[in-house]
Design brief:
alpha/beta; globular; 7 helices; 7 strands; about 40% helix
Length: about 260
């Protein structure tokens, strides 16, 4: 689809966590191209600044940066306050920040690793959705988009804490849709394997052998998240809430 065919977000403000790289960066740039001003957050402020510069240069939209570790509630609360101080309102929240550290076996998973995975992937999005969603509901409404994973429904032993956190995130999607409707819509994108910078650490020969069994036979290009994200962010999805939408090349239904 061309930019002119994609849904528009003119006059909107979008906050994207984990917005400095990968799918987050793609969504930030796409929402700015669609007419939104953007707030970009991740742990590394210099990476956020680089994306903000790209937004300003390529779209002319406002781009605000505020670093945040999503596993720390005090930082999540500060992020919410800073973005509202800058823009007065948030119309679109994308809970994209996530982490899935490797471990040798399940017995080796430490309490620290487990808590960190749950904190970034589940605890932080809960708090940010509660804070931003409540303001949306009291104001002009909005859309919350949670970025989930096929691991939520097909957890494997090598990403079990991550899969559990993403399953919880999908549960939050439904609960927040009930809590903040009718003016706030809350949906989840259940992502399959996208070939972002993280995929550089994969065993690509092994991955390509697995992906050959998917209906589409491959991993996703980062830009292929854009259509779904803009659909859920915009009025194009005005009757869609509490939904978990798979964007996975058919991974979840492959054998």
């Amino acid at each position: 689809m061309t930019n002119s065919e994609l849904p528009r977000l003119d006059g909107k403000v979008a906050l994207v966590t984990g917005g400095s790289r990968g799918l987050g960066r793609e969504m930030v740039l796409a929402m700015a191209r669609a007419g939104a001003d953007v707030a970009i957050s991740s742990r590394k402020v210099e990476d956020c600044d680089a994306v903000a510069g790209a937004v300003r240069e390529s779209t002319g939209r406002r781009a605000f940066v505020h670093p945040c570790h999503m596993g720390h509630w005090d930082e999540v609360e500060a992020l919410c306050e800073a973005v509202h101080d800058e823009f007065d309102a948030v119309d679109v929240l994308v809970n994209n920040a996530g982490m899935a550290p490797l471990y040798p076996d399940l017995e080796s998973v430490s309490e620290e690793l487990f808590d960190k995975v749950i904190g970034v992937n589940l605890k932080g999005p809960f708090r940010l959705s509660a804070l931003v969603g409540a303001r949306m509901a009291r104001g002009r409404g909005g859309s919350i988009i949670n970025v989930s994973s096929v691991a939520a429904m097909r957890p494997t032993p090598d990403e079990l804490p991550y899969g559990a956190a993403k399953a919880g995130l999908d549960a939050l999607t439904i609960g927040f849709a009930l809590a903040y409707g009718p003016t706030v819509r809350v949906n989840s994108i259940m992502c399959g394997p996208f070939l972002t910078d993280i995929s550089k650490a994969w065993d690509m020969e092994r991955f390509e052998a697995m992906a050959a069994a998917y209906p589409l036979g491959r991993g996703g290009a980062p830009h292929e998240i854009v259509g779904t994200a803009l659909y859920l962010a915009s009025d194009a999805s005005s009757f869609t809430t509490g939904t978990v939408l798979r964007v996975d090349g058919g991974q979840a239904i492959s054998h």
